[in-house]
Design a protein that fits this description.
By secondary structure, the protein is an alpha+beta fold. The chain has a single domain (5-114, 154-194), classed as Pnp Oxidase, Chain A (Roll). It is 27% helix and 37% strand. Strands 1, 2, 3, 4, 5, 6, 7, 8 and 9 form a 9-stranded antiparallel beta sheet that branches. The relative contact order is 0.19.
Length: 196
């Protein structure tokens, strides 16, 4: 499939929304799954999968434990990159920018929307810390099971990545893939084609 400059929306968020909808319509499993890259204070990178739970004019929202490795890295260096890959469509989107916490009310609302077992797991897990064995985690969850509406723990919540750059990548069988990068400039976006 070909991607031409004239096919692109001048607004990268609108372009992303169109591709995200196309991924859903094509039956891509979990189209909101994204690789999130952060970096430690010494510059060492780390990467993991997250779920993008929303995107709007502010940016791309995901949720996690603030004391996790990614949370600690974001506290020290509040910049990150997301990569969404929709293999059946031969498409990728990269988003880079500054990350900040979402308002507490937004984190509360999302936490309440999660299934109860997911909420209990979030409370029981001190994410990224060593644990002796799985039975320890299961015991922590079991101790919480009497609470039908547990409150969001203070160390758990959302982040929003505010895009400074996007890249849209379209697979081509000849390996001359189509790549377009959007970068912020003077209140708008500059779009340029990149070599594959």
């Amino acid at each position: 499939m070909e991607l031409r400059r004239r096919d692109l929306d001048p607004d990268p968020l609108a372009q992303f929304a169109a591709w995200f909808a196309a991924a859903g319509e094509a039956g891509v499993p979990v189209p909101e799954a994204a690789a999130l890259a952060t970096a430690a204070p010494d510059g060492a990178p780390s990467l993991r999968m997250v779920l993008v739970k929303g995107f709007d004019a502010r940016g791309f929202v995901f949720f996690t434990n603030y004391a996790s490795r990614k949370g600690r890295e974001l506290a020290a260096n509040p910049r990150a990159a997301l990569l969404l890959h929709w293999q059946p469509l031969g498409r990728q989107v990269r988003v880079e920018g500054e990350v900040s916490r979402v308002p507490e009310q937004e984190s509360d609302a999302y936490f309440r929307s999660r299934p109860l077992p997911s909420r209990l797991s979030a409370i029981a897990s001190s994410q990224s810390d060593p644990v002796a064995e799985r039975a320890e985690l299961e015991a922590r969850v079991a101790a919480l099971e009497g609470d039908a509406d547990p409150p969001r723990p203070a160390e758990w919540g959302g982040y929003v990545l505010a895009p400074e750059a996007y890249e849209f990548w379209q697979h081509r069988d000849d390996r001359l893939h189509d790549r377009f990068r959007y970068e912020r400039e003077s209140g708008g976006w500059r779009i340029e084609r990149l070599a594959p």
